[in-house]
Amino acid sequence: MHHTYMCPSCRAKTRFNVIDQVVTSVMWNNDDGVYEEVERQEPFHLTYQGPDKRVQCGSCGLVEDELRFIKMAENANNQA
Ligand SMILES: [Zn+2]
Prior knowledge:
This protein has one helix at 66-79, and strands at 16-20, 26-29, 34-37, 53-57, 63-65. With 80 residues, it is of the alpha+beta class. The protein has a three-stranded antiparallel β-sheet. It has a two-stranded antiparallel ribbon with strand order 2-3. Residues 7, 9-10, 12, 57, 59-60, 62 line the site of zinc ion.
């Protein structure tokens, strides 16, 4: 891992849980009354645009996009 993280909330830099986002697209099946996984999304089904990873601070439990933790660490380095 090349990035440095800093928690935007408690400013911890040591312990994190990195969460890989696994996207499953589903669509409601009215006949069966369940959501079914779709292999190919229809044109009006938005593709997931969110981040690949989210991060949880291992100290205070905050969960945010990975980018927020990276930016926080960068800003802290710039100020030092
Ligand atoms: Zn924290």
